[in-house]
Amino acid sequence: MGKSRLVGPVRIVGVGLLGTSVGLGLRGRQIETILADASPTNLRIAIDYGAGRAAAPGDLPQLIVVCVPPDVTAEIVARELEAYPGAIVTDVASVKLAPLAELRERGADISRYIGSHPLAGREKGGPLSGRADLFIGRPWVVAAHDAISYQQAGAIDDLILDLGAILVEMTPEEHDLGVALVSHVPQVISTLMARRLTGAAHSSLNLAGQGLRDVTRVAASDPDLWVQILGANAKPVRDVLLAYRDDLDRFIDALEDPAAPGAQRKVAEELAGGNAGVARLPGKHGQDRRFSSMVVMVNDQPGQIARLLNDIGELNVNLEDLRLEHSPGAQIGLAEISVLPEAVTRLTEELAARGWRIAG
Fold it and tell me: If DSSP codes are grouped into helix, strand and coil, which group holds residue 356?
């Protein structure tokens, strides 16, 4: 691990998933971290977890990271700017225009504030969900504005790089439009899909595979937090959802009479459009690269996944992704592994030689 760019100390306000993860990541680089939270219990857990120490009189943080819900972000940022006039302040809220506008209305010193947003997280929140490696390889947006200089914002860049994230510069407007498309609308669609399951027969749910689990994964997120996020970024989200409604209407119309002239062509065009969209998603290291998948059958016994990963490593094949699926009532799991296309044939042969059963 190289030398830290930050000097510290860094004050973290709010020790949920993101705040605790920031603290754990910085402590791993020997940076002094100061923790604060409205909940004494959460604060104690985060401290015991090793994310930092409690605040003390005379603290002079270099940088303050505000990790609180969106509806109080501007209020807490304004308070921190006033309490620590020598510090640079950032927040990690998933909307950037609203906090900046409110800070301007409050007359806060935004020459020492710049919003940021790590696109990293988990469905479970709270300090116990924190991970020191949460941000590694993940985009972290810095939403620049004219009132802060590049030199003053440098500490925030240092924070991002120290935590292993990828720094992305955007305006607040660009950020909020972007997350509406790639984060906020997917949350809504995932939620609506999951709601379809509440009244479904158990016989139907037993048929669920990895595709449904992928689509509904984020539906397990905290509703209270998402009410705030969607409310703060309502217009961009609504605009995307309106376009999505038009997409659904076209699909519904095409399926009304699948035998009608042109109906199957319309369905095929919609499906092909989805293929084109997926192909544009950045792959590993931010490159538009498609990987090949293979499915390995894994006995439902302790240590089998670890053995599979070890065998792949010994064969000097880089694992790009891993997904696990269990069949109801079967004592076997399916491990879908993604690798570079040129590695598939050799990996299939080598794993088979080591006794693994290749399902596809």
Answer: coil
Dihedral sign for Cα atoms in the order 275, 281, 284, 288: positive
Q: What is the pLDDT of residues 119-153, one digit of tens each?
A: 987 767 789 889 999 998 889 999 989 888 767 78
Between helix 304-314 and helix 344-353 the angle, nearest 10°, is: 120
Could you write out the DSSP letters of every residue in 167-207? EEEE-HHHHHHHHIIIIIHHHHHHHHHHHTTTT--HHHHTT
Beta bridge partners of 65: 12, 90
- Neighbour tally for 112: CB within 10 Å: 21
The angle subtended at Cα 334 by Cα 332 and Cα 340, nearest 5°, is 150
Whether 142 contacts 168, CB under 8 Å: yes
Domains defined along the chain, listed by start:
10-170 (3.40.50.720), 177-256 (1.10.3660.10), 291-358 (3.30.70.260)
Can you tell me the distance from the alpha carbon of 224 to that of 188, in angstroms, rounded to the nearest whole number?
Answer: 14
Rounded to whole angstroms, the Cα distance separating 52 from 99 reads 26
* Nearest CA among 341, 340, 334 for reference residue 308: 334
Write the single-letter amino acid at 284: K
Take residue 141 and report the two structure tokens written for it.
């947006």
Render pLDDT for 167-182 as a digit per residue (tens, 0 to 9).
999 999 999 999 999 9
In three-state form (DSSP H/G/I as H, E/B as E, the rest C), the secondary structure along 249-271 is: HHHHHHHHCCCCCCHHHHHHHHH
pTM, 2 dp: 0.76
Tell me the three state secondary structure of residue 124. Answer: coil
